[in-house]
Amino acid sequence: MTTASLLPALMQLALLLAIAPLTGGVMRIAKARFQTRRGPGILQPYRDLHKLLKKGMVIPDTASWLFGAAPYVVFLSSLLAGLMIPMVAADAPLSFFGGVLAVVYLLGLGRFFLALGGLDSGSSFGGLGSSREMTIAALAEPAMMLAVFTVAIGAGSTNLSTVAHAALGQSWRFFAPSQMLAFAALLIVLIAETGRIPVDNPATHLELTMIHEAMILEYSGPYLALIEWGASIKQLVLMTLLVNTFFPFGLSPAWAAGGLPASLVWYVLKLLLLSGVIVLIETTNAKMRLFRVPELLAVAFVLGALALVSTFLF
Amino acid sequence: MTSIQLLYTALTAYACGAAASLLVARSNRLARFASFGFPLLGALLGIAASLTALVEGTAESAAVASGVPLLEYSVRLDSLSAFFNLALSVLAGAISTYSFGYVAGLPSKSAAILGFFYNVLLLSLTLVFTASNVFFFLIVWEVMAGAAYCLVSFDHGKQETRQAGILFLIMSHAGTALLLLGFLTLASSTGSLSFSAYHHAGGKLPELQRGAVLLLFFFGFGVKAGIIPVHIWLPAAHPVAPSNISALMSGIVIKTGVYGIVRVFFYFFDIVPVWAGTLVLAAGVTSALLGVLYALMEHDLKRLLAYHSIENMGIILIGVGSGLLFRAFERPNLAAVAIVAALYHTLNHAVFKGLLFLGAGSVLHAVHTRNMEQMGGLIRRMPFTAFGFLVGAVAISGLPPLNGFVSEWLTYQALLAGFGATGSLTRIMFPVTGALLALTSALAAACFVKAFGITFLALPRSAEAAEAREAPLSMRFGMGVLAAGCLALGLGATWFLPLFDTVTEQALGVRVSSGLVTADGWSLNAGGAVSTAGIAVALTLLAPIPALLTLLWKRGGDRRTGPVWDCGLPGLTAANQFTATAFSKPLRMVFSAVYRPRREIQADFEVSPYYPRAIRFESEIEPTFEKGLYNPLRSAILAIADRFRAIQAGSVHAYLAYIFVTLILLLVFGARA
After folding, report:
1. Using the 8-state DSSP alphabet, how is residue B525 labeled?
2. Hey, are the CB atoms on A121 and B449 less than 8 Å from each other?
3. pLDDT tens across B595-630, in order?
4. How close is the nearest chain B Cα to the Cα of A55, in Å?
5. What is the DSSP letter of B92?
6. B570 in contact with A at a CB cutoff of 8 Å?
7. Distance CA B71, CA B65 (A)
8. Which end of chain A, N or C, is less surrounded by CB atoms within 10 Å?
9. ipTM of the complex
10. Torsion over CA: B380, B381, B383, B387 (sign)
11. Domain residue ranges in chain A
12. Which residues pair with A57 in a beta bridge?
């Protein structure tokens, strides 16, 4: 790695750390407005993180070293996954370390340790959350892979920089049926993976929702901050994957100072739009019963399969 | 020394181990040194022999005449044999070290007997991978099965063990019968019993015979490989064996099936029909998915691992099957990538499954039960074993940066590239296989969260678990070697790939490692780049960020230990912890079409059903294959046998008459020929 690639890596790192909580804040306030509430203010996630990092923490006396290791693994794996995807420039800083498969599996690594962290305290809520999180993630995986394969086959590579460059070359291909279907499949997966309505409810952590928030029930203070921050980075990673693969508009081809401000504006606009879509889905749907979720993910799988078939039918 | 000479010395070491362990059976200590010291030496020599053969890419052979017609003790160490021997030797080295401590508690005579069969098994395995004469191959194949049977039945005081042993023996022999038929067909068409005469000979068979031979070999070797639906012996036999033997069985004995399939399909046949490749691929997907689904429902730690062996054999067969298809589509380079993926997974599985079984063995050694619901909290009592098991769990779940990720990544890339390998509609099969592989590996991750979480984390669920003691040094060392192997094969993937060059060159005439490894040797490249070493370095470099964040803000905060909050419920005990059954409940409901679960709840209560005094809960899943396939088969065989009883009257005169009639018939046939 040379200094030429070190600077973009640092810039993207800063961007990831900085705007990941903001995305959550935007969504929270947009949701409040949809429900004609005022909402907590766009900077609330930062305040939450600040508060959590400042606080002390209580470690359950039943827990082992794994309980403390899990937040770090979650945070680091999401962060590294974020460096492998194109955010403002088509050249992702660390795309030579892995493409979309590595991104998916790195997120899987974080989930694996977080689920172990949930089991480590021995509390039934933690186990419940871990069990459900792993179940839903497993069911989301094939749909995600099919959508990802559709994109990768179109671009001839699983490397996300190559995919982004290929997408830049033909901006209007979004209207190809395969792309639309793959986008729909990935959107469902995004909702399931980030624990949003109708799959899970990020706003509460009691009996009614009981997936992600139940798993991390025993975490407090800085560990909880790392998990929350990691989760928001994971959400940003998946959203970025969606907007930049399917709508590459405004993506600067390389890390050149000239194109970056414009592409940053484009990137933020696209994120805002996608956040709007997610919030709209969240406000207009009720949370599903847990055992209806597999049906939703089956829909995503079928959409992914159709996307794949339509790559050579149309 | 040349590779074949090294191989001979390795074989001699195993033979000495077998003989010596019986000679010194009086003393446990001596028996252990003889039984496991010699194979350790043999394993090191085996590694040297295999690496020499793999690097040089030569195929040395040697033969000793037997004096018996048609039989020749001939061995041939080509790159494929050498590769499987490498996997065997690496695993045998680690297991031998582990076994020093593992059998310490056994009576000296038992230790010696275990050591004897262990050495015989290693000897026969080495020969299975190298024999190049049909009869010699079948003999060592049967010796292997016999030694494995004796080891599986080692703990023969238990009914469960005896039944599992018999089931293994029956299935194994059914498989051998199919192999014998396959070999006889090849022998009758080529007029030779030497493997070298069969190379490229399969294609010359008439259409119908070719199909029959492929099917015979696939199912014959498939039994040993434990592919679904001929898998039922595997989850029965692997758990009841002593754990060091389970590691050897799951790690390498089942790989003899893969070796056989690759040897026949890639070496004996220049090209196999598309249907045969599709069959292998379909068997792979089915075994992978059903294997992991059944594993999820197990609370017996070793049965769970055994079902994961079926899953991983499936993943290997996905690689083999797609390799066969790509060769049929005339894409040798792609076929080579698929084969490298399959073989790399073979080696990886030997290492991480060996590690997991050894870990399970240490747990068993300490807790005296295989039931996960009786474990828990072992990470505190057995930190080293827990860490080793965790490494194995991450590796088998295919998570970066360990070795399972590398081979699964290669498999994905082969499947993705497969989409472009043919124009026909069949190409949709490859990405769909990829999606199902993703489901399999995500389910495997869920299963290992359960296996590790319930076994090692939270509060101990039984008095034994609370009193567990860490395994002795030699056992930890054996696990440590394999854990280091998981790490090395993961991070150093780019160094290991050139080893496969001579294998693919001999099988397909192409070398692919230079194309798979990027010029700087830092990352893998096949339809996209990945660098496990890079991921590991990047994770390390990023590590200061969260550490710094927590340090910067920490000022007022303190860190203290307290009781579990559990949403305000005080007094967590082992009884109200989450169980393995509960953990897998959502998946049991989602996949109820596969499991057809049955449950029964009985509650005794006095006043209201909400205040039960005692609850009995029973839950089981339907053993589909036993019920739908094997039970009818068994009844049919018994019914036929019943009919035959009529002619077995116990009268010597009748038997003499049978012999006479048979003789006459043979004479008639002989005269006609």
Report:
1. E
2. no
3. 888 888 888 888 888 888 888 888 888 888 888 899
4. 5
5. H
6. no
7. 8
8. C
9. 0.95
10. negative
11. 3-313
12. B559
